[in-house]
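Final report, closing paragraph on structural work. Over the funding period we assembled a curated collection of sequence-structure pairs, and we close with a single example.
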Amino acid sequence: MRLKRATSSGDRSNALWGRGSRGESRSNALWGRGGRRAGATIASFAVVCALAASATAAGVGSSGNGGGRGFGNLRSFVAPELLSSIQQNPRQSFDVILQGSPKTRSHGFIQKVVQDKSGASDENVGAGAVKKEFLSLDGARLTLTGRQILRIARVGLAQSIVPNDTVKMSGVQMPTYNTQLWPWATGAAVDWLNGTPKAPTIAIVDSGIDATRSDVAGRVLGQVNLASLPGNTPTGDGYGHGTFVAGIAAGSAPGYAGVAPKANLMSVDIMNDQGQATVADVVAAADWILQNKTTYNIKVANFSLHSVSRASVQFDPIDQAVEKLWLNGVTVVAAAGNYAVNGAASGVQFAPGNDPFVITVGAADIGTQVSARDDTSAPWSAWGYTPDGFMKPDIGAPGRYMVGPVPTSGVLYSQRPASVTSPGYMQLSGTSFAAPVVSGAAAMLLGQHPTWTPDQVKGALMVSATPEPQVKLGQLGVGDVNVAAARALRLNHIPNPNAALEQFVGAAADGTAVFDAAAWASAASNDAAWSDAAWSDAAWSDAAWASAAWASAAWSDAAWASAAWASAAWSDAAWSDAAWSDAAWADNANAEPPVPVDQTTIDPQTQDAELAALGIVDPNCDPTVDTCVLPGGLLDPPADTTPPVDTPPALLP
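Its predicted structure, as stored:
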């Protein structure tokens, strides 16, 4: 059962707050469920029953896995966790068991595999790959790359290919960790290792950050107070929202790791202790980041807020400010908003989430599993066309029933005692908390690829997103962010979702890049196909989601034409005094009641399986960039080299 949101009243704040609660029980469904297998590559696997996998393969027979996952038709059965890992890095090595037909002896079967040279040089199997032939089954143990496994499966040389059981993954001691479901659903655990790259600084434009918290201690480079409304605590975080956002993006406290726990943070405080700011405060924050980005290595800016006046990129000052950041090297991530009703299209009406350049994030409800099978869009997560005709959000991320740090002296902490899960931590919901998941992912990409532009970061996150089969087209953009898949991308060319906008980017008087919204509007009014260039890039075909369907929905001339921006009514509303006063709010789903914490927690068995699927076997090795093996440099424990009493014949000549 999924919640239904209460009907909105005329109060302005109702556009910001989600409603309702999840009535169903999670606990029974949580234990033992499978994982989201789109993680990075693996060198060894959690203990599973190889015989059960083999029995499944026998049931499949010669039909294999069929199509799917972009591998074409596979004539051999390949274990799903293998396929998911191969998808991320086909050049990684895997310890596997190949089974042939029961009518063929092991030696003859393996001879056939090794002697087949019909593939490319890096796809053919050499004799050295064979580790052991079996007598009790018609197969052998081999060390193969993903490319070799795929060729064997496509040709049908084996009946089944399953992983060899080599190590229980619970033995991996992670430097930091999180027991909630959401980091595992996004593959964020690959960012928690000693071997992961150091991310650049993330600017949190919010209500401040409590820098004394163990979640962020030693990594808050500074706090600038730009709030103009009365009632703001000048240091720290008097509201609590900003600390929570910072914890999701970059927390490092035991049990509460964020996406990028090594990233530094810059607190840009623009909100008072009620979560309110003015449009001018938001613009001032963008100004400050633009002026200080080099000093503090700020490459990502998180805006978990939105204005309350319907916005067009032609006129809105916040849009123009975040575009300036984007076009000058700062990746901007914005919350979509929490004003949808029961999942219906609401449009994304407010800045900065309405801006076509920035990464706008919707909130996913990841349900009871790490996999995407039961994911839905949070019923209050805003989605649909902006007033300028752009489909938003661009991507989704977990945003419902998130647990994060909040200062005990903060207003949020005292306002919502039922949401306190333990001292200094609360469970909150909102696109505010989906956005920092993506900010952390963006920062980690930039740590790995420091020369990437914001367009490349956005393209990489979108092309690697996990499809969400249970949501309507557009509700969560192209799908849910997949941190591990994005970091494991090996594309020679990253597609640019903003490619069609580049023709309208020029130089400002100060020499910095600027978007010419008037020129864009003129072109859009004369040519409805102006945006096609963004989605014609062949690289989008690598995406697991339906790129053609998204391309047809990404911009709507009908939605844009209905805005009638030339009207006096729009002009008056856009530039009234009210638009500059009390006009931006923190964006958490205020009326979302909490659920028991154990319903949002990952069980140990599923966690072990996810570690295996992500290829995490050594806390000092990052499987998205390196070939990781067990400590000691072996795929599994050393073999006994003492010759057996009855030595069998040599495997191959």
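Confidence is low (pLDDT under 50) at residues 1-63, 166-171, 559-584, 632-653. DSSP finds 18 helices and 23 strands in the chain. We thank the funder for supporting this effort.
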